[in-house]
Write a structure and sequence with these properties.
Helix content is 25%, strand content 31%. By secondary structure, the chain is α/β, with parallel strands linked by helices.
Length: 251
């Protein structure tokens, strides 16, 4: 395995309601998918530096917390947002951006908006927590993963890390080289997967029940799913960006 920088991941820092409010750690992007945990949504809304809803994601936020007014922006082609919801947020001064570009998803449009927010405020980095991922239709789930994979390879669209939070898991793309993933037991269960969505990858792991060494993984051949955490810190080396997914303790 080629040597490279070590990337440290602390996904529990943005998901744990027990941590102090920092105010500048991440932007919250709400997709138009069912929200299974109102307590998680409330925690994220309270702690996010910037909150943006992707079109009908505004409907989801309004249904959960009708009086929530800390939403900063609604962005997308606006073919899904309810008139009542749009009127509600317009009256409260929420920025509403209609982008009819049919070659970009509402997810991508929101990521571009977050980038512009970073540039405007002079931020070098702002992580993004995406809520509502991988729920609903299969084609939409693949579209979300494709958007993430495309985005992590293009610094012209992002200035930070992207965490996709679904009903039962949080997922993100590991960087090339050595990755250390902190897995606090109060936030995560034991089940993890490491999945190459791009080219074939060679990975080595430490801290899993079934560790591998210089193991080639590829869609259509062999992939690592339903593995189990056996350490507080996982070490994963990879020569390509691969999707890492871990089960939430409170799904």
């Amino acid at each position: 395995m080629s040597e490279g920088p070590t990337t440290i991941w602390r996904p529990g820092d943005v998901l744990s309601s027990n941590l102090p409010i920092t105010g500048d750690d991440f932007a919250l992007l709400i997709l138009n998918q069912p929200i299974s945990s109102l307590s998680l949504l409330k925690s994220l809304v309270t702690r996010a530096e910037y909150i943006i809803a992707a079109d009908g994601g505004a409907n989801r936020l309004y249904a959960a917390f009708p009086e929530q007014v800390s939403l900063d922006c609604i962005c997308g082609d606006l073919d899904s947002i309810d008139d009542e919801v749009r009127d509600h947020y317009e009256k409260r001064g929420v920025e509403i951006i209609q982008d009819s570009d049919q070659y970009s998803t509402d997810f991508t449009k929101c990521l571009r908006n977050i980038l512009q927010h970073c540039i405007k405020l002079g931020y070098d980095s702002l992580n993004v927590v995406v809520l509502g991922g991988l729920g609903g239709r299969v084609d939409q789930a693949f579209s979300q993963l494709h958007t993430m994979y495309e985005t992590v390879q293009d610094n012209g669209v992002r200035r930070g890390r992207i965490f996709l939070v679904s009903q039962e898991s949080v997922s993100f793309f590991l960087e090339r080289g050595k990755n250390l993933v902190l897995t606090p037991k109060d936030v995560f269960k034991e089940n993890v997967g490491i999945i190459p969505l791009g080219p074939p990858a060679v990975i080595s792991t430490k801290g899993l029940e079934w560790d591998v060494n210089d193991w080639e993984t590829q869609i259509g051949k062999q992939i690592s799913t339903s593995n189990h955490i056996r350490a507080d810190v996982l070490e994963i080396e990879t020569n390509e960006r691969v999707l890492f997914t871990i089960e939430l303790a409170q799904a």
